Amino acid sequence: MKKAAVVVLALVAVMMIAPAAFAQGGADQGKAPINPTTLVLAVGFGVAIAAVGGGLGQGRIAAAACEGIARNPGAAGGVRAAMILGLVFVETLTLFTFALGFLLYLKL
Q1: Which residues contact 86 (CB under 8 A, 6 or more apart)?
Q2: Which segments of 1-108 are extended strands (E)?
Q3: Whether the predicted pLDDT of 32 surpasses 70
Q4: Under a CB-based contact definition with an 8 Å cutoff, are residues 93 and 55 in contact?
Q5: How confident is the model at residue 98 (pLDDT cuts 50, 70, 90)?
Q6: What is the tens place of the pLDDT at every residue in 39-59?
Q7: At 51, which CATH number?
Q8: How far is residue 7's CA from residue 21's CA, in Å, rounded to a whole number?
Q9: Of 64, 49, 59, 45, residue with least CA distance to 105
């Protein structure tokens, strides 16, 4: 329960900091007003949260697949194929988050 409270507190802190990344700058700027420091922090937190979530999801997928293979070794081929497909989907979401963060960083 204590971990959940810390995670919720960290997410609230990030949600409070993220709008500052798009705070209005000086009037002489030709492009959209973006605060680079908070944008980099928001991108870093976003990629970190995606990596942690992806890692936890992949761990659960692998654990469930190993348990399924241990219970029924005859279905190992099907379980392994489903596991690899699930791992690909989770990893793809993490890579999409990284690409989005990279694109936001290049927008500076």
Answers
A1: 61
A2: none
A3: no
A4: no
A5: confident
A6: 788 888 888 888 899 999 999
A7: 1.20.20.10
A8: 21
A9: 45
What one-character DSSP code corresponds to residue 30? Answer: S
For residue 34, being part of any structural domain is answered with no
Mean pLDDT of 79-88: 92
- Largest Cα separation within the chain, whole Å, is 69
d(CA 74, CA 42): 47
27 in a structural domain: no
| Contact present, 17 and 41 (Cβ < 8 Å) | yes
CA dist 105 and 3 (Å) reads 30
Query: Is there a contact between 65 and 79 (Cβ–Cβ < 8 Å)?
Result: yes
Domain range spanning residue 78?
A: 42-108
Check: pTM over 0.70? Answer yes or no. no
State which amino acid sits at residue 57: G
End-to-end Cα, the chain, rounded Å = 39
